[in-house]
Amino acid sequence: MSTATTISTPADPHVRLTALPQDQRADIINQERYQSAVGSLMYAMISTRPDIGFAVSAVSQYCTNPGPMHWTAIRRTFRYLGGTKALGHEYRGGYCGGYTDADWGSREDRRLIGGYVFMINRAAISWASQKQGSVALSSTEAEYMSLTQGIKEALWLGEFLSELGASRHKSEIRQVLCDNQGAIPLTRNPQYHARTKHIDIQYYFVRQHIESGLIQLTYCPTHEMVADIFTKPLPRP
């Protein structure tokens, strides 16, 4: 792939990956090579490349039975990395805080994809793109569930920064931005109603930390939502 033609995005926004039919099985050698390729991409993603987070999350779901479609997706991500070797993180002062976002019901199994990214001095320090274990029944619930994962990370990062002696960033990193107008009031309103009463009790720990003041939750317009790249394949703009 080192001599392959480069491309401007890590995942094709017009392609939806699906599992192979049950009667089609990849051979062991093909599986091992695919898993090795995914591992290489995952190393880059975890270390320094949050921009391929969603692409790696998507292809890693087919490690047990990869097909031609999945190989094409992997090669595309390598082509993207080949053309963006000069990109990196630049910590130059400025925004500190986090973004959380979710993509509701667009996957084959209808489970939501949640993502978050936390930044210090305008560059990312922690990020994730994760498929959740449960199916959300509304976009508000999807955003709320993703917000839960982001707040867990914010709480941990705050304590970690304190241990490093960077206490001045502790309160800043706990400023979380969300682009869903339904999820934000839900964190502050103790009333149950028909649309939200079925949400699992574990997600209500969000409200506890909002009320205590440990987390400051703020609305962010969708076109400014940095974490959007962790929930779906996007075109270059």
Sum up the structure in keywords.
single chain, 237 residues, alpha/beta, Nucleotidyltransferase, domain 5, five-stranded mixed sheet, 5 strands, 36% helix, globular
Overall description:
The structure is a single chain. The chain is an alpha/beta fold. It has 2 domains: 1-88, no CATH class; 97-230, Ribonuclease H-like superfamily/Ribonuclease H (Nucleotidyltransferase, domain 5). It has helices at 28-47, 53-59, 68-83, 139-163, 170-173, 183-188, 205-212; strands at residues 97-103, 113-120, 123-131, 175-178, 216-219. It has a 5-stranded mixed β-sheet. A hairpin with a 2-residue loop joins strand 2 and strand 3. The longest helix has 25 residues, at 139-163. The radius of gyration is 19 Å and the shape is globular.
